[in-house]
Design goal:
By secondary structure, the protein is of the alpha+beta class. The chain has helices at about 55-60, 70-75, 80-90, 95-175, 180-189; strands at about 5-10, 15-25, 35-40, 50, 65. β1 (about 5-10) and β2 (about 15-25) form a beta hairpin. It is elongated and about 125 Å long. The termini are far apart. The mean pLDDT is about 90.
Length: about 190
Amino acid sequence: MATKIRLARYGHKDYAFYHIVVADSRSPRDGKFIERIGSFNPNTNPATTILNFERALYWVGVGAQPTDTVRTILSNEGVMLMKHLNGGVAKGAFSQEEAQKRFDAWKAEKDAKNGKISQAEADKKAAAAKALLAQETEANKAKAAAIAEKRAAAAAELAAAAQEAAQEAAAAEAEANGEEAPAEEAAAE
């Protein structure tokens, strides 16, 4: 039986995610499989991969052929490197401890590189958010100044109207008492 390590599609329209499965090469894509060894979600940034490393290494070691996409996923996770190192151990080129040491060094280097990329992305997002907040704050200050100016103009207009109404009331009261308004006296003189 020819076995393949491939992706089986799950999810719904416009949001597909995949199970990494070991299956007979004759079975349909989403059909019967031998073992599920992980999952791959390309919808996240960066894509999320969950993999049972030992089982993937076992299946690659016994001859299961990964598809091109799964080969890339396995390479990124280090399964293909470990298979290569195990081949060197089997030939007697170096010991299992040396192979593990080389793999750990590769993994640490890869994690450091991914950490720098993730940190750079996080810094970029933080800077963009900070710039957006500063822009929004400036816009809010401008709006507050415009509103304060409008309110001051309305208050001045209201005060002028109240003063005019008070003068008219004083003039009406003076006329009612038979006296001339104080403003009219100043105009007559």
